[in-house]
Amino acid sequence: MKFQDYYQTLGVARDASPDDIKRAYRKLARKYHPDVSKEPDAEARFKQIGEASEVLQDPEKRAAYDAVGSQQGGGSGDFQPPPGWDTGFEFSGRGDEGLGAQDHSDFFEALFGRAARGMGAQRRTMHMPGQDHHAKVLIDLEDAYRGAQRSVSLRMPVLDAEGRGVLQERTLAINIPKGIREGQHLRLAGQGGPGLGDAAAGDLFLEIEFNTHRLYRVVGRDVYVDLPLAPWEAALGASVAVPTPDGEVELTIPPGSAAGRKLRLKGKGIPGSAAGDFYAVLTIALPPAGSDTAKHAYAALKAAAPDFDPRASLKG
Amino acid sequence: MTSTMNHDYTIDIVEEELQLTLDQLCRACRAHEELVRVWVVEGVLTPIGESPPEWRFTGTSLRRARLALTLTRELEINAPGVALALDLMDEIDALKARLRTVT
Question: Hey, which residues does B55 pair with through a beta bridge?
Fold first, then answer.
């Protein structure tokens, strides 16, 4: 088990005041909040920051942590809590830990896991509906077109026979319905946390996220692709093959098409009762003027359009 | 559309098939009822219906409420601040979507 240097995580000194710790936490929390942050490892960092602040902002936990840390010498090597380290500490626990408890590091669990278990035992006699759980599922755009089956592994805190909170891993086979869109949620009734006493289990909510696609961009139900054309295809019109998540289609390019023009394939976006559209956004690719023949062809084009001013729009 | 899996649970698409009562929304996002009422007053959430017992929240409210809760708890932003932050996030999302239609 790795020793977690919570002071280092928050970038504060060991003798930092509660205010300093709070300020450091706020600043980092804004920077790494997964809903706001652009950092690639935002979610992991945010959890570390949250755990560090949970310990350092709680006087009881901070004192206990400091006691262990001084024996450890502050190093970051392999860590085992010394036997009987926690005698003399009693954790009151936070009332609202909820699902967040499963996100703690092993280190945190080893030091403070006991508090949560105690709470579970006290609440056993009550009848309380189970908590709703939330998770994310990554799928491909193609899955939204066809529907798909995904196995989702979840670690959930559950109470064992003795009323202690333990993490249980379980795998659910989930049918992703055809027509699902990014940001939508699936609700799996009764698959959340178990209820206490006779109360019903909570629900499991899965947020759908799409993997970034090499070709396509998705906006709600609509799907976009960039379609490069040769100048003569754009000028004279053509019939070109365009890939769509549903397979290749033949698209007619009208003569005189400009770059940026969007050609719509109605109903070829994400399917559903109100199916999205598929858009090919035209771009013009220029053939290189590498050979003499190509140079002559460009010169001939120039001669053929003596009045053409590509910068006419820049003139007052 | 509700489909039964090889296991005995049903899957609903929240945004399309669900309307949540105040109680259900509170449970799903783990927020106190009092907080949700404040969010409605501040315009963070706009339920259908006149009074709290009649309120029905659409599935999209769930994501908004969860976001609002993290902003409230973890960044200690007050309700008007949460409303502002969510409006700005909506605007960023709309701009990003527009960007994806051009390049």
Answer: none
